[in-house]
Amino acid sequence: MEEERKGAIDIDSVRVTFTARGEIVEAVSNVDMHVKPGEFVSIIGPSGCGKSTLLNIVAGFVKPTSGSALFDGVPIRGPGSDRGVVFQQYSLFPWLSVRKNVEFGLKMKGTPASQRETQARTLLGLAGLLAFENHYPDQLSGGMKQRVGIVRALATSPQVLLMDEPFGALDAQTRAVMQEILTNMWQQFQISVLFVTHDIEESIFLSDRIYVMTARPGRIKAEITVPLPRPRTPEMTYTPEFIGLVQQLKALIREESLAAMGSELKEGGLSGFGIEVGPRGVEEVV
Questions:
Q1: Cα–Cα distance between 159 and 186 in angstroms, integer?
Q2: Is position 230 within any domain?
Q3: Which residue in 196, 185, 152 sits closest to 42, CA to CA?
Q4: Residue 76's closest CA among 9, 15, 27?
Q5: Residues 27-38: tens digit of each pLDDT
Q6: Range(s) of the domain holding residue 27
Q7: Among 13, 155, 165, 200, which residue has the fewest nearby CB atoms (within 10 Å)?
Q8: pLDDT tens digit string along 210-265?
Q9: What is the Cα–Cα distance from 87 to 190, expressed in whole angstroms?
């Protein structure tokens, strides 16, 4: 009998509120979101819409105000080694070598030292980092640091990888390479991925499905299936299918971004504020 695959995420009717300056603020409202085992799902939306909040709920860092969040059918009560997390900040221990950083989670699980080293070196080899196992984080480039972060998250054999803008601090060329590396590693490990990003092209290139969120309070505005075949290649970004998805998502996001920025921008900001500014700058009109 085939073993049932793990890594299912089910978020149902989730609402999150918090208190700011004595007032209750609704961050996320009535969100339903699902990730099948082995699926790559992205969340995109305007700043402040609750993307990271939803990711942190799955990670066990945030508890919903109402609604339910299940991982493989079990309510999420807190963090666990079955969910690996990668943030935009590299979050590496600067006093530990690359290999020791990767071994850290295994050490916390009580894995014997010899086994930790073998597993860490195997993963570093898959990521093309074995030659740097004895280097320290400050000796690495940004892309290499993030590869170490991904490898460290994978070392404890999680059923899902939770990624919050992991490539946001990288330059465009490094980011594109990291996207290819991530898709290759994901296909090798066959685990679920929930990925938060502001980058529309990135979400399309990486994902099986994309959830688009509204401005705060964050709701699900659209759920988009990406019909591109795998493995994904850079050449796909020039196809009519890819370009059409980019335009569709840009239209959805632009509307919500304007809503998030407020009525002042919609009424005046896009039309030049209705004033003329001469060579002396703003001092001429104030």
A1: 11
A2: yes
A3: 196
A4: 9
A5: 999 999 999 999
A6: 9-82+158-284
A7: 13
A8: 999 998 899 999 999 999 999 899 999 999 999 999 999 999 998 887 777 764 55
A9: 20
